[in-house]
Amino acid sequence: MSNTPIKKNIISAGQKYVPISNGSKVHFHFQTWKLGNERILLDDSREIGKREPMVLIIGHKFKLEVWESIVKMMAVGEIASFHVKKELVYSYPFVSKTLRELGSEHRNRHTCTMTLQTEGIGFSDLDNLINKPCDLEFIIELLKIESSNEYEKELWQYSGQERLNLVPKLKERGNILYGQKLYDEAEDVYCQAIGICEQFMNRERKCDEEWITLNKMKLPVLLNYAQCKLVKGDYYAVIEHCNTILEYEQDNEKALYRRAKAHVGAWNPDSAKDDFQRLKFINPSLSSIVDKELENLRNMRKQKEEQDKKALEKLFIKEKETQQYTTINRKPKFFFYNVTKLHLFIGKTLIAEAAKPAPDPLVRKRKQEEDGTQNKKQKEGENKSQEERLKDAVTPYWDMPYEDQLKVKEHEIKNLLMKFDNDVWKIHKEKRGEIESNRKIYNGLSFELKPIEKSPITEGYRNKCEFTVGIDDETEQPTVGFRLGSYATGTVAVAPVSSLNHISEKMKKAVLVFQDFVRQSNMAPFSPADYSGYWRYLTVRESKSSGDLMLIIAMYQQDLTTEKMEELKKQLIEHFGTEESVACNIKSVYIELITKRRAGEDGSKPFHLTGSTHIIDTILGRQFRISPQAFFQTNTAGANILYQSAIDMSQVKSDTTVVDICCGTGTIGLCFAKHCDKVLGLELVAEAVMDAKANAELNGIKNCEFFTGKAESILPSVLARVTGNDVIAIVDPPRAGLHMRAVTQLRNTKKVKRLVYISCSPASVIKNLVDLSRPSSKTLWGAPFVPVRAIPVDMFPYTRHVELAVLFEREKTNEQDDEEPVPEDIIGDNEMKEVDSTNGEIMEDIVLRKNDDIQI
């Protein structure tokens, strides 16, 4: 046998040779014979898979490259055999496996190397060929050759830019199909366009211009795709896609309209009503269309009620023997209506008594007052002035010297940490001796507790307050202030805030400016007792560095028409342009229309009315942009102490990577940035991430990246980006603490050597602290963290609250730091770009433009 790797033998001559180049499409049938002691047929294209000719696109890196060489030797119509050396056909078993499974309902799973060695690929003859490679003979019948411009390419055949250029064409084709009412076909075309966009988006980082361009290209196609789903009645898919669009662009009118229509179809009438009303608010010119939809919705409600009524009637039959009414299955049933006398059933009157609800707190309190059954605390409160009751409710330490407040808080923190320390002692039997030894050094604790850090400012320290709009129980006037107690205790009265010492004078004046408007408006404050009224609360944010104020007015639209709302907005803009408002330094005003929040949907968001869209404050020399819903420590001066303490205790170095978990607007991470190599921030709220990026740009900081998503979902992917060996995690979670999955990821990532846990509610996060310290287990297989130092910082003078920062260090073990197993949900570096948020991966926010396709 010759050493030639491919030996050809013509069986039947062909017609003519056609030049073959990259992009040419070649059609041929083939047989594959295994050569050796005997000649065995492996495959015949007429018998396997779809029983169709093989199609090969030249130059597209087909796994069996030898076939490209073979067909280039042939003329169209020719049949020839090719003896091929085994070195050129090692990949054939895998090609054959794929071809055999084409057209089969059952497809074997992907085969990894370990499985291949133990189980094979599912076909015994191919497994034998893998284990004992040999020469193969291919009998090829060349049927047809098409040049690249003679056939319509499939998507995968296009180059990158060619595919992007296809998107507007596919969108246009989809629109034509939609106009012809070919909704399935239109949906498929839109889906192809969306797939192209997402494929390229996955290669870009979301903050890059290219990603933004791709996302802008995708959004209008997704909106049209949702329209196809709406026409076909796939309402929940429409809601999901429109939620995605509205997550990025809350004022997208078409997405709102289509989601509202989908809610009607899925019969979520309250959600539909909310979307229609929001659409009216955003674009008053659509009022006539929306009013018609709302009228249709009301009529549908009535029809549904009538249908339910008739269905209820049919549940009852008359039993002649007993003259009683029972259900069809003869088991008595009771139906409760919100009326005392139900309509006639088969000539008989049924009486339905209303079920008694849980007693309303306000009603209960009034009854207690009438009966004289208040508890001791309630009676004591009645003997105090309104001012004293307000101070007791809002600033319970108002009459305690500040040094005494610090002693109380320090004592409470020590007791709390001793409970944590005892929990650690219980679960670490082998370390009890060490813990007890350390307790002798650290005054009863196994780690150091630093003295409490004072707040640099104790008067007017708050930079954010949420004031309730209600009725003053003394003047009986609408008042903007604080409640004298919670509604759960039966308290709805609101008292003015002039006597409170934790609010600045500037903020108090701004409250009075808005209070004047409320009183002049002749619109009642919202009442939690009967859900009537309009004004709910006023949030005031203050920059302690510039003195600028931001106001967010929250209200219920109730029965106000779009025209009245527009007039009200104009009045508010005019009111906050007066000299009195300017004197208060009110630089930004927002309004928020409160709607009922439902699962899977975002709550109501503020709309900008006038002035700047944000204010600027400073921490540790860094400037921070504060938007209406952004998290920012409420004591700016105290935040300087807290963040500097975290930096000092963390022992951060120039080659350290800092992972800032629950980063908010990036305040902690950006303060760390100049001390470390890189900062990676994680945050659930997309608007906060946008602020964090803007803050990094504002301060000229280049070594920070921020990602949106739940910490427990995206933490593995973010940690996968870390290249250095010195990693510090900074954790500043919401009041309830970290999700257990996030704690697990931190424990199991050996690169994280130190961890600083910051909490505004230390009692709520004890479980997190204990879980970080637990002995290694099947779930928490990483070495535990050991508490080293704790620092309480008083961020809230005159209240019971205190901030706590705890430094943990990874317990040193004798084991070498082997390469860590990669968690299943981590994606590869080359794919670490943008992943659908519904799969729990990285999702960053971006503002998208409106589109002008399929009209409402």
UniProtKB/TrEMBL annotation:
Name the active site residues: C760
Which family, according to UniProt? Belongs to the class I-like SAM-binding methyltransferase superfamily. RNA M5U methyltransferase family.
Cite the CDD domains for this sequence: AdoMet_MTases
Q: Which domain of life does this protein belong to? A: Eukaryota
**Matching InterPro entries:** MeTrfase_TrmA_AS, MeTrfase_TrmA_CS, PPIase_AIP, PPIase_dom_sf, SAM-dependent_MTases_sf, TPR-like_helical_dom_sf, TPR_rpt, TRM2_met
Going by the record, the broad EC class of this enzyme is: transferase
GO BP terms: namely: methylation; RNA modification; RNA processing
Q: Which Gene3D superfamilies match?
A: 2.40.50.1070, 3.10.50.40, Tetratricopeptide repeat domain, Vaccinia Virus protein VP39
Q: What is this protein called?
A: tRNA (uracil(54)-C(5))-methyltransferase
Gene Ontology MF: a single term: peptidyl-prolyl cis-trans isomerase activity
Feature: compositional bias, Basic and acidic residues: 367-392
- Keywords of this protein's UniProt record, alphabetized? Coiled coil, Methyltransferase, S-adenosyl-L-methionine, Transferase
Q: Which gene encodes it?
A: jg6908
Residues noted as binding S-adenosyl-L-methionine in the record, renumbered to the chain: Q633, E683, D732
